[in-house]
Amino acid sequence: MTNPINANNDDKNIIFDVKDLNLWYGNDKALKGLDFQIKENDVTAIIGPSGCGKSTFIKTLNRMVELIPSVKITGEILYNGTNIFDKSLRVEELRSRVGMVFQKPNPFPKSIFENVVYGPKIHGIRDKRKLMEITETSLKRAALWDEVKDRLNDNAYGLSGGQQQRLCLARALAMEPEVLLMDEPTSALDPIATAKIEELIMELKKEYTIVIVTHSMQQAARISDKTAFFLMGELIEVDKTQKIFTTPRDKRTEDYVTGRFG
Amino acid sequence: MDKTIQVRDLIKKNLNNPKNRNIDKIMPNIFLLAASISVITTIGIVLTLIFDAFKFFKEVPLREVFSTHLAPLAVNPSFGILPLINGTIITSIIAMMVAIPIGLASAIYLSEFASDKTRKNLKPMMEVLAGIPTIVYGFFAYSFVTPLLMTIIPSLGAKNALSPGIVMGIMITPMVASLSEDAMNAVPNAMREGALALGATKLEVTLKVVVPAAISGIIASFVLGISRAIGETMIVVIGSGSSKNFSFDFTQSMQTMTAYIVEFTSGDAGSGTLGYYSLYAVGLILFVFTLLMNLFAQYISRKYREEY
């Protein structure tokens, strides 16, 4: 083992292999020499205090971080063995396989149906029957179908916040991605809507690899298999969730998970 | 302790001061008055138009008004307004055929593709274009664009509808671009990110998310542009001349409603004559035109509004 803090060496497939990843916003270094691996069908939670780089990191995985001008990146992230920064990989292709759900629900100001099929449509699926089928399966997977099946043509903004977030999830699932990135997906939701999303994550991990940023340690403990603790742009520790919350190796991790700072 | 009591007393005294309370009552009325001025002016203008236009419509049968024969200064004057409406519509259509595509394309570029630096340089430059007096555009149309177009269309008249139409379009373009850009800028970034995260390209995000989300603002900019074209005067007076023939040949001179009003207020029609009152009739129809345009715009933008 080259990296002593990297202890998740079970025999699952490696989906993302992050190698010496550094990221700067202008002159501020936001990610410092990250090395770790994300495995297939794991729910990996990323925790850490505000400004520790956890959102930056998750946005690097689908290169959304590059939307911010003045971002500079060094290092590699291998996605199924291909470096995502390589010119041969189109960023649109990467993003069609690595779906994302954002902090605040951001449906398009279109009908529920149009929201779900937006991705498949821009990638060339035109057949109305196929689109209907995609809508039904995606909404069912996002546990929203029963609530909206009679009003698929209504504007998505008529839904509640929790429903909107599940719609965004359905929209991502409609692309049949391999990985789902979730950037604090429940931070704008009430406890009941949060519980629903968490239930969904437990269900979805059978088919997808999930990376979730959360500021709630309880959430990380409840739903994740692995937990990574970030501090000031550094990966302090990553391990099985249970281990992180009971017997962390690093003093700083222990202080954080026991609530001594953050 | 003493201090608290003092402060309280002061506040109490201030609250009971009648002067302060009066000002709270008076100021809203002053604001209301200011707001009413524009409403009152509008009502005044409409009433003037209606009363004097009424005198015209009393004298001239409607069948004559909606005919194609316009000869206000003939021995037997005829006041068919269709040539003027025709001239207005044709020049406006030409203008919008220039302004809508160029304006929308510039707005898309500025809002979605230009770097911050380019945007900062380009936008003020476009706004300068909007600040040029229309009479300058007028002789630009007459002395530059018309001769230029003559090299392509040899049969083009020295006064024609095409060249002022194009120049009006150029004049309106910055307005369409600027208003459409504002509308597109108002679309939350979260929506762009949502689409990008699904693997959409920037162009797909622009055409399938941003433009539809901003469509009501974009259409509003088109309609304001059309209203501007319909009401535009100096460019068509200079560039398009005063032919009162009813024809769809935009390579020849045409008179618009506004140009007709200019021609007759510069001395040809004596006050109180039928020709004089015809100005008000034309003015009223012009007003109805823009009013309908705006109502239409409201209808369209409400129908296609995407709430977010």
Commentary on this structure:
The complex is a heterodimer of chains A (262) and B (308). By secondary structure, chain A is α/β, with parallel strands linked by helices. In chain A, 35% of the residues lie in helices and 26% in strands. Chain A has one domain (14-257): Rossmann fold (3-Layer(aba) Sandwich), CATH 3.40.50.300. Chain A is built from 10 helices and 10 strands. Chain A has a 6-stranded mixed sheet, sandwiched between helices. In chain A, helix 3 packs across helix 4, helix 3 (112-122) packs parallel to helix 6 (161-173) and helix 4 (128-141) packs across helix 6 (161-173). The two termini of chain A are 31 Å apart. Mean pLDDT of chain A is 90; it is low at 1-8. Chain B has a two-stranded antiparallel ribbon. Chain B has 13 helices and 2 strands; from the N terminus they run H-H-H-E-E-H-H-H-H-H-H-H-H-H-H. In chain B, strand 1 (70-71) and strand 2 form a beta hairpin. Chain B is flat, with a radius of gyration of 26 Å. Chain B has 308 residues and is mainly α. In chain B, 36% of the residues are buried. Classes of the chains: A alpha/beta (262), B mainly alpha (308). Chain A binds chain B through residues 62, 64, 67, 69, 92-96, 99-100, 102, 104, 106-110, 118-119, 122-123, 155, 157, 168, 171-172, 175, and chain B through 116, 188, 190-191, 193-201, 204, 208-209, 212-213, 306-308.
Can you give keywords for this protein?
heterodimer, A: 262 residues, alpha/beta, Rossmann fold, 6-stranded mixed beta sheet, 4-stranded antiparallel beta sheet, 10 helices, disordered N terminus, B: 308 residues, mainly alpha, MetI-like fold, 13 helices
Strand order within the widest sheet of chain B? Answer: 1-2
Instruction: Give the radius of gyration of chain B.
Output: 26 Å
Instruction: Give the fraction of residues assigned to helices of chain B.
Output: over 70%
Principal-axes geometry of chain B comes out as: flat
Report the top-level CATH class of the largest domain in chain B: Mainly Alpha
User: In the CATH classification, which architecture of chain A applies?
Assistant: 3-Layer(aba) Sandwich
Strand coverage percent of chain A: 25-35%
CATH fourth-tier homologous superfamily of chain A: P-loop containing nucleotide triphosphate hydrolases
- Give the helix/strand class of chain B: mainly alpha
Count of runs of 4 or more consecutive helical residues of chain A: 10
Membrane topology (chain B): Multi-pass membrane protein
Pfam families (chain B): BPD_transp_1
Function (chain B): Part of the binding-protein-dependent transport system for phosphate; probably responsible for the translocation of the substrate across the membrane.
Protein name (chain B): Phosphate transport system permease protein
